[in-house]
Automatic annotation (TrEMBL):
It is found in: Cytoplasm. It comes from the Eukaryota. Pfam families: Vinculin. This is Alpha-catulin. GO terms for biological process: cell adhesion; Rho protein signal transduction. GO terms for molecular function: actin filament binding; cadherin binding. Belongs to the vinculin/alpha-catenin family. It comes from Alaudala cheleensis (Asian short-toed lark).
């Protein structure tokens, strides 16, 4: 609204409609400021230490809003210039000054409010820590019950505050770290309850004390990390040094190498050599690992050697090109760049294969949880020798899983997934010894119900983390295949200006801000449809089914077209969009062919329906291809063509949303109950409810187990009365 006022055109003739519109905007700004300031003043009254600063900022904002309202009070004036009354027409600089003051004061109010939120979180954390100190020192069960009830309420408050803060974070890396810390606090709350009760029941048991101390220590670390994220600080002023992954190293290295096409002098050969050395040092995590297969190890070593050779060749041609920029040398440089990048891609693919195949094998092997079951049985029997034997096996399993997490971190593909891998590694590293101490306690006190319950809680945490690893592995594979991360991006596009002479004549055209605004609603509808299609394809047990494959491909392309409407993604120009629309239509035709193939497997009644839908899809795809290939001259015609392509893509996706569940139902029917569907996992429901991408690391943390915390508190109150 402020921008509208400042940018209005000073026309000699001003209609009543224009004058009324300007006055309405001015009044709207003033009313909005009034509502905003009212909230700011209420916050100031509740927080006396910032009351003065907040009040001053609110007064400034209110004054600026009133000034804008006065300067735009022009509707009743027939000739505003001849009147002594100052208006936006006689003093436009006044509106500009008032707008600057308004934006400045509003920013101050927001910053002060943010400081208050941070203070609330710190205060809440301090309360939790103080109560934890009390819990750690209690000696009677009755006293513990009373204090834990208070602790539970404080944790619920902390959960709400940090949950809101997590949703407000824009940095995905911080969001993932916050999610990890809150997940630790959620799981540790129940652990703290059972570990403390076990220690109270068996005060002279050393393993019970070790078990309890481990939980308290982990919770304090998690609380500290939340505060670091909220205040954007590190203890003792130290900088956070996250270990570099192979993926991020290769990505940066390739960017530098490809940058030589534009500038031969922007970095030194020593820089490139150092970057490659760092990457190859990290590959030693794979080659030195006892769990890497011989075949993978050999391939990684071979590709590392090749990468050194390719870089030597690149540096040689690069140095020559710096001295003499001939056509032949530049062509040689281009070949050297391509070969170096291809080698790095091969290396990336090999380490990805090594990490994910190891993870898949380990997760499959440990799904039966045999070691945990054996620990529970031998613990109840009081068989210390057998417990010792199985704790050794659990330690071996822990080392395998920790190594798996380290290798997966190298190939995770995004910073949030890297953080999730680090969190998983820490969880296995800590939970393993805690299970062992809980099992030892049970073996020493085999008739103790609380010791048995305590072991169950820690075993459940281990099983839960293993289950999370299966989802994480899937996410990592999806990112590698281009289906996730910044959502799926279809990579079949030409790269204008790079190695494609035919495209050099095309004039790149982008949508301007106004055009993006016009097409935003259509783009959003397309976005929602891609989510629906993804949801439907994930319900198929046979992910290799041709219908699923084509459906996923079309969803990926439609999503990249949605990103184009926002000015994001790989589709940079309208020509990119039209090319993508053609490929999308071709993929749709292939989907229709898969429907024809399915029609041969179903009953006659269903066959007619499928063939009818297939023909409908083919017709829609042909229309889209015709639109995408049609010529468009001029800005207006080009935008109309863009709008038509997005609209027709949306229509195809709408039909796809109807076809996918129908096909799965018919296939299941034709297989007479063998089933092509798997039951939807619980996290799917969370994803739908939260409206976020469930594959991101924060997929399950919004609730923070607040309900379960409240249940703990209720249970403790019941125990106290009992």
């Amino acid at each position: 609204q402020i921008t509208t006022l400042i940018n209005h055109k000073d026309k000699p003739k001003r209609s009543d409609k224009t004058l009324q519109a300007i006055q309405r905007v001015g009044q709207a700004v003033n009313l909005a400021v009034g509502r905003f300031v009212t909230v700011g003043e209420a916050i100031a009254n509740e927080n006396h230490e910032l009351k003065e600063e907040m009040s001053v900022a609110c007064i400034e904002a209110r004054r600026a809003g009133e000034t804008i309202a006065q300067l735009t009070d022009v509707a009743s004036l027939d000739h505003p210039e001849s009147d002594s009354h100052i208006t936006i027409f006689t003093d436009k600089t006044g509106v500009v000054k008032a707008a600057r003051l308004l934006l400045s004061s509003v920013t101050k109010v927001l910053v002060l409010a943010d400081r208050i939120v941070i203070k609330q979180i710190i205060t809440s954390r301090n309360k939790v820590l103080a109560t934890m100190d009390q819990l750690e020192k209690v000696s009677s069960f009755q006293e513990f019950v009373q204090i834990f009830s208070q602790f539970g309420n404080e944790m619920v408050e902390f959960a709400h505050l940090t949950g809101d803060r997590q949703n407000d974070l824009k940095d995905e890396k911080k969001k993932a770290r916050m999610a990890a810390s809150r997940a630790v606090l959620e799981k540790c709350t129940m652990m703290l309850l059972t570990a403390s009760k076990t220690c109270l029941r068996h005060p002279d048991c050393e393993s019970a004390r070790i078990n309890k101390d481990g939980v308290f220590h982990r919770m304090r670390l998690a609380l500290e990390q939340v505060i670091e994220i909220v205040t954007d600080s590190r203890p003792n002023g130290e900088n956070e040094m996250a270990p570099i992954s192979i993926y991020s190293g290769i990505k940066e290295f390739k960017n530098k190498v490809e940058g030589l096409r534009e500038n031969l002098y922007f970095l030194s050969k020593e820089n490139l050599s150092t970057m490659l050395e760092v990457i190859l040092e990290h590959t030693e995590d794979f080659t030195d690992s006892a769990y890497t297969s011989h075949e993978h190890r050999e391939h990684i070593l071979e590709l590392s050697k090749q990468a050194k050779m390719e870089l030597e060749q690149l540096v040689s041609v690069w140095m020559q090109a710096q001295n003499q920029k001939t056509k032949d040398l530049m062509e040689d440089l281009e070949v050297a760049i391509l070969k170096t990048c291809q080698c790095m891609n091969d290396l990336k693919r090999e380490v990805h294969s090594a990490a994910t195949s190891l993870a898949a094998d380990l997760l499959k092997y440990h799904t039966d949880h045999m070691v945990l079951k054996a620990l529970k049985i031998t613990g109840v029997e009081g068989n210390l020798e057998a417990v010792a034997e199985y704790t050794c096996k659990l330690s071996e399993q822990k080392e395998q899983l920790v190594e798996m997490c380290r290798l997966l971190r190298h190939v995770s593909g995004t910073e949030p997934l890297e953080i999730t891998c680090i969190h998983a590694e820490d969880t296995f590293q800590v939970t393993g010894p805690q299970i062992i101490s809980a099992a030892e306690t049970l073996a020493l006190h085999p008739s103790s119900k609380i010791a048995k319950e305590n072991l169950e809680v820690f075993c459940e945490a281990w099983e839960s983390q293993l289950s999370d690893m299966s989802l994480l592995l899937r996410e990592i594979n999806d990112v590698f295949e281009g289906r996730r991360g910044e959502k799926r991006v279809y990579l079949s596009l030409p790269r204008p200006g790079k190695h494609n002479a035919n495209l050099k004549a095309l004039k790149p055209v982008k949508l301007d801000t106004e055009e993006q605004a016009k097409i935003a609603k259509l783009g959003l509808e397309l976005h929602l449809l891609t989510s629906d299609v993804d949801s439907e394809t994930e319900k198929w047990e046979d992910q290799e089914n041709e219908i699923v494959q084509h459906g996923q491909g079309m969803s990926s392309m439609a999503y990249s077209m949605y990103l184009f409407t926002r000015g994001e993604g790989l589709l940079k120009t309208t020509q990119d969009l039209f090319h993508q629309a053609e490929i999308f239509a071709t993929e749709g035709t292939k989907f229709a062919s898969a429907l024809h193939a399915l029609s041969d497997q179903v009953h006659d009644d269903d066959k007619a329906l499928l063939l009818l839908e297939a023909e409908k899809l083919i017709s829609m795809c042909k229309q889209l291809q015709i639109t995408a290939k049609a010529s468009a001259q001029g800005k207006s015609a080009t935008f109309t063509k863009v709008d038509a392509c997005i609209l027709k893509t949306r229509n195809v996706m709408t039909l796809l949303c109807q076809l996918l569940p129908l096909c799965c139902k018919l296939l299941r029917k034709s297989k007479a109950g063998n089933g092509c569907l798997k039951p939807a996992p619980p996290w799917k429901e969370d994803r739908t409810r939260n409206g976020t991408n469930a594959r991101t690391p924060e997929r399950r943390v919004d609730t923070f187990g607040i309900k379960s915390l409240e249940n703990h508190v209720t249970n403790m109150t019941f125990l106290e009365s009992k």
